[in-house]
């Protein structure tokens, strides 16, 4: 009889342990899902906001959308040469080249090739050639790096870029893409009046718009951009320095 009671207690303990493990797995899965959907940015100690990494639908006539640089809001594209930047003394024709160069902090020769190009598409294609040399933690940092590039773009182009941001009103900003559902949104195959995607670039631009609108009367407050606090944030072998003068 004691043997049966002991066996019963042992089986109960095993079942209880399995239940605990199952619940723990559910909690971990749920938490991982939340982390995947909400990306909290704490950049250089001066910005804290969330990016939703989950696809949304946007009605074309209810958003400020851009696809080509020649369009009304085309200057918001990283492919625009209308807003050059300068980092560590290097003049760079567009933010696409700056962003792509940040992929290769340990390869100065690749960075030099990329930032020397005036064509933003040329910079993107050059980067693809060296894809295997991309920093190992690129996916973990690419949103932060994109935000930093946009802040540099605004810091060095002030009201000329700010006016485009302001002209989007309070509508969602969406980059219409042919296939990129991460940075932008693509035309919905079932409903041609809708765009679908995570639109991460659009979300960052809406945050940039909020920054500009809140400080446009004192634009100098936006002229300083601190470097990201990530490992190997380098350009041509040197640590990336702060942009502008801190007030």
Low-confidence stretches: 25-37, 42-46
CATH class of the largest domain: Mainly Alpha
Q: How helix-rich are the residues, as a percent range?
A: 40-55%
Distance between the termini: 82 Å
Q: Hey, roughly how much beta strand do the residues contain?
A: 15-25%
Average of the residue pLDDT scores: 87
Quaternary: single chain
Q: How many strand units?
A: 11
Which structural class do the helices and strands define?
alpha+beta
Can you describe what's shown?
With 247 residues, this protein is α+β, with helices and mostly antiparallel strands. The chain folds into two domains: 1-43; 53-239, YbiA-like (Tetracycline Repressor, domain 2, Orthogonal Bundle), CATH 1.10.357. The protein has six helices and eleven strands. A hairpin with a 3-residue loop joins strand 1 (38-43) and strand 2 (47-52). Helix 2 runs parallel beside helix 4 and helix 3 (108-115) runs antiparallel to helix 4 (120-129). Residues 25-37 and 42-46 have low confidence and may be disordered.
What is the topological layout?
Layout: H1 2-37, E1 38-43, E2 47-52, E3 56-59, E4 64-66, E5 85-87, E6 90-92, H2 95-101, H3 108-115, H4 120-129, H5 138-167, E7 173-175, E8 186-187, E9 194-197, H6 200-215, E10 234-235, E11 238-239
Parallel strand pairs: 4-7
Antiparallel strand pairs: 1-2, 3-9, 5-6, 8-9, 10-11
Helix pairs in contact: 2-3, 2-4, 3-4, 5-6
Question: What keyword list fits this structure?
Answer:
247 residues; alpha+beta; Tetracycline Repressor, domain 2; 2 domains; 3-stranded antiparallel β-sheet; two-stranded antiparallel ribbon; 11 strands; 15% strand
């Amino acid at each position: 009889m004691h043997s049966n009671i002991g066996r019963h207690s042992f089986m109960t303990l095993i079942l209880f342990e399995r239940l605990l493990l199952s619940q723990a797995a559910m909690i971990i899965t749920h938490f991982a899902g939340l982390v995947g959907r909400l990306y909290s940015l704490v950049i250089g100690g001066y910005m804290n906001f969330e990016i939703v990494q989950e696809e949304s639908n946007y009605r074309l006539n209810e958003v400020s959308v851009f696809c080509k640089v020649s369009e009304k809001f085309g200057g918001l594209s990283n492919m625009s040469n209308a807003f050059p930047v300068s980092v560590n003394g290097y003049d760079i024709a567009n933010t696409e080249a700056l962003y792509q160069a940040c992929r290769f902090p340990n390869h100065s020769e690749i960075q030099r090739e990329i930032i020397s190009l005036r064509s933003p598409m040329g910079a993107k294609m050059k980067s693809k050639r060296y894809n295997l040399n991309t920093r190992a933690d690129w996916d973990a940092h690419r949103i932060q790096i994109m935000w930093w590039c946009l802040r540099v773009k605004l810091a060095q182009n002030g009201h000329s870029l700010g006016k485009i941001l302001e002209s989007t009103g309070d509508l969602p900003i969406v980059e219409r893409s042919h296939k990129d559902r991460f940075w932008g949104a693509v035309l919905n195959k079932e409903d041609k009046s809708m765009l679908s995607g995570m639109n991460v670039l659009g979300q960052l631009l809406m945050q940039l718009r909020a920054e500009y609108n809140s400080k446009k009367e004192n634009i100098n407050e936006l002229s300083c951009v601190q470097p990201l606090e990530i490992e190997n944030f380098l350009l041509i072998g040197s640590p990336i320095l702060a942009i502008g003068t801190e007030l």
